[in-house]
Amino acid sequence: MMTVLSLPETLDLKASGPLKAAFLERRGDAVEVDAGNVRRLGGLCLQVLLAAKTAWAADGKSFSIRAPSEAFVETTRLFGAEGALLSADIHGVQS
């Protein structure tokens, strides 16, 4: 079963707890993360996303990011996490 998780515009410290909970609720299902609305991505939420991707890989489940916003992509690159998070699993990204 594929589950879509739509990210909010602001992924800051306050959003990290609910983001973690949203992933825990979906554990065991393939997940597609819709990052199209993200305007601000903080380090803690980036860590949650990286941990989720790692957990899904360990479970052998699909984890993909759909149509990430320019802000999402740029912030991920600035944090040096593009190789870990931005990969061939991204759908709809324009380079």
Q: How would you describe what is shown here?
A:
With 95 residues, the chain is an alpha/beta fold. It has one domain (2-20, 28-84): Transcription Regulator spoIIAA (2-Layer Sandwich), CATH 3.30.750. The chain has helices at residues 13-26, 43-59, 70-78, 82-85; strands at residues 2-6, 10-11, 30-34, 40-41, 63-66, 90-91. The strands form two sheets. Strands 1-3-5-6 form a four-stranded parallel β-sheet. It is globular. It starts with a strand and ends with a strand.
Instruction: Kindly report how far apart the N and C termini lie.
Output: 29 Å
| Low-confidence runs of at least 5 consecutive residues | none
Q: Mind telling me the C-alpha Rg?
A: 12 Å
Give me the CATH fold name. Answer: Transcription Regulator spoIIAA
SSE order: EEHEEHEHHE
Q: Count all strands and give the number.
A: 6
Secondary-structure map with pairings?
Elements: E1 2-6, E2 10-11, H1 13-26, E3 30-34, E4 40-41, H2 43-59, E5 63-66, H3 70-78, H4 82-85, E6 90-91
Parallel strand pairs: 1-3, 2-4, 3-5, 5-6
